[in-house]
Amino acid sequence: MKQRFIAQVIDWNQEGRGVARVDGKAVFIDDALPGEVVEWQPVRVKKSYTEGRMSRVLMPSNARVQPPCEYYERCGGCNSQHIEFTTQVALKQRAWLNQMRRLGKVQPDELMPPIYGLPWRYRERVRLRAVYEDGQLKLGFQARQTHAIVDIDGCLVLPVVLSEALKPIKALLQSWPVGSVEGMMLHQGNAVIALTLQVCGGISQKMRMQVDGLLAQLQRQSGCVWQWWLQVGRTTTLQSASATPVLAYGLSEYQLEIPYQPEDFTQVNQATNELMVQRAMQWLQPQAGERIIDWFCGLGNFSLPIARMQADVVGVEGMAAMCQRAGSNAQRNGLAQLARFQQADLFAMNGQRLRRFGYAHKWLLDPPRAGAQALILALNELEDRQLPSRIVYVSCDPATLARDAGLLVKRGYLYRAGGIMNLFAQTAHVESMAVFDWR
Description:
Blueprint: E1 5-8, E2 11-12, E3 17-22, E4 25-30, E5 37-45, E6 49-59, H1 85-104, E7 110-111, E8 125-133, E9 136-142, E10 149-151, H2 160-174, E11 181-188, E12 193-199, H3 205-222, E13 226-232, E14 235-238, E15 248-251, E16 256-259, H4 270-284, E17 291-295, H5 303-308, E18 312-317, H6 320-332, E19 339-343, H7 351-355, E20 362-365, H8 373-378, E21 390-395, H9 398-411, E22 413-421, E23 431-438
Parallel strand pairs: 4-6, 7-22, 12-13, 17-18, 17-20, 18-19, 20-21
Antiparallel strand pairs: 1-5, 2-3, 3-4, 5-6, 8-9, 8-11, 9-10, 11-12, 13-14, 15-16, 21-23, 22-23
């Protein structure tokens, strides 16, 4: 039996763990909150830190609440339901600032109020994995600390219509041959809900008819239009009739509709995405006659609002297929004259390649978790007069933002403002945004 210890928790980190110090060494304890006294036992001991598991709370925080989800103790989809919602956001903001100071040795001149979003029923895009145990299908999220799958019949962070569909979808898939299903995705768009079935091979005509029948049933029950897609390997194809409405999300303030396919990257939380785009445009302040580059542009989530505000925008993306879809989205929204898209490897950027894109008054960066280090380092090879006057950076990883912010400040940019966006309530995941001005 492992030895147990008692510690007072003094902080909370970006992984959602309480932080204590024992004999001068950092201890990261799952599920512990600042201000609590907890009993814990070590699960991994390193030279500079220890990871621990909480056995019980001896003195609870006022922010500790009872998780409402029946799967919470096992499911790895959420790890913050035991924290009162506004405290979740405050802890994320504090952890984000700590990373700015510790990793980037920087902090913004102004800390912006967090963008909160909804605490529940916000996740309009979800992927569930499938496994078989003794011939029984299990469909859900990966468990905490293991690769097992937690079988779920509903989920509190999904919209009600998606959550209620899980059980009948699983019942249908259970009737299919063992091993035939690898997983599924659900997307709730503006006018249609899309079900994507990930299978190991082709499916029979009978199975197709079963899916059509299920979707007709879900449509009657929910009042929403449903369509379905089939994914075999890396190929995803629409199976529903072509008259089905297109899968798309909207940015209402900019009168935009952005179609996408199930494998395309979109934000899981469209209401908060709208707030995020709004803040980015407030900071970027696109003006007619300006030329703006949107690096890592994806489907045009930021490029198209920039163009709607009458600035010329060049969207740059690593995947040629995404550039093509972004171009189609610009055409669909009447913005093809202002928005152009091109493919480039943004992780192999240098000064010579950067100059080929020409001068831009402003930049918007929305990189993946790896950040935009190569692109930012390439600024060191430009003359001061060639630099953009403002850079708005949208981040899904505080650690890489901190690193890149430090590089921008070293190059001579002022870190004007920054703050978090709570796109993933009930989890420790942090999205954030920062703005930098040339001196």
